[in-house]
Amino acid sequence: MKFAILTGGGDCPGMNAFIRAVVRSALNLRPATSVWGVIDGWQGLLDSNFRRLTKRDTAGIAHAGGTILGTLRLPELKDNIDMQEAMALNLHDNFFDYLFVIGGNGSLAAANVVNNFIKEKNLNTKILVTSGSIDNDVCNNYGFSNGFYSAIDKSLEMLEWIRDTASAHRRVYLIASMGRDTAYLAFYAGIATGAEYVIRPREEVDWEKLVNLISERDRDTRIIVAEGYEKSIIEIRNILFEIFSKRNIKHEIRTVDMGYFQRGGKAAVKDILQCSWLGYSMVKEAYNNCDSGFYATFSVGHPPAVLTLDFAADSSKSNHADLPDDIIEFALALR
Ligand code: F6P
To answer: Does the model's pTM come out above 0.85?
Structure first.
C-alpha cells in the first residue's frame, strides 16, 4: 500500500505524535508499505510536494510541538473547485491508497470536498481524518480535539506566572487567549487556574457588575478574554478604566496576550497518547480497506468512533460553538 500524511491548518502539539504513529505502525505492521509526508499541508498536496518517510525520520518527535511536515494556510481552497480537483487528482495519480489528515475544521472541510470529488470520479484514494486544533472546534460533540489539552497546559502555566505579579502589585490583568470563535481554551484554562472571569465570544458583558467583582478583590484579578469576543483587550481596558475613574477605584489595569505561546511547545501526555493511538488505529483500519472517515478522539485502548466525512464536516450536526450551560455553571460553582 501507499500512504500519505498531511498536517493542516494551524500547527498544534500532538501532530508529530500522529505522524510518528502512522509511519511506525504502517511500516511495522506491513513493511512493504511506503509512507510519504505531504510537505506544507494542503499547499503541498496542490503542488505534489511529497517526501518519503522512514522510521528514523520520526525518532524522538512524539512530544514535540509544531509539525515536522509543515502546514501553510490556504484559505482560498474552500471555494476553489479547481484546487480541490487538482488535489484529488494528485492523490490518485501518485497512487496513494490512503491520505491521513490531522488538522482543524478547515482541514476537515477540505478533506470532505476532496473526498467527494474522488468519489464522484471513481478515483482510488481514501481519506482518513482526525482533529488537531487548540480551539476544540472540530467535531466537538464527539470528544475534545487533539492539541486542546496541550494548549491548556501552556495557558495554565502562563496564568500562574501572571498571578504572581498581579498579586504582588494588586493589579487587574486582562489576558487575551487564542481559540478563534469558541471560548473553550480560554474557559477551561480559566477553570484550571481559577481566574476571576472569562469573557466569551457573543457574551453581553455587564461592565458595572464586572467592576463590582473587581472592586471586591483584595489583591490579584485575572480576566481572560477569548479571541472571538468583539472587543480587544485594549478596548476593554478603556471601558474598565472609565468606570474605575468614576467610582474612584485605584487598581491598575495591565494587558497581556498569551497568543502563540499557547500553541507551541511540548505536547501534553494526553495528546501524545491519544494521537499515537489514533494514528495506529487508523492504519489498522486502512489495512482492513476501510472507507474514508473522521476518527473522533476517544481514550487510548478504546476503538475510536468513526463518522462519515460529510457528517463530521457539517458543524451544525457534529459541533457546538458555545460552551454548554452546565460547564458555565460548573465554573461559577468553583469561583
Ligand atoms: O486555529 C488555531 C489558531 O491558533 C486559533 O486559535 C487562532 O485564531 C489562529 O489559529 C491563528 O492562526 P495563524 O497562525 O494563522 O495566525
So the answer is: yes
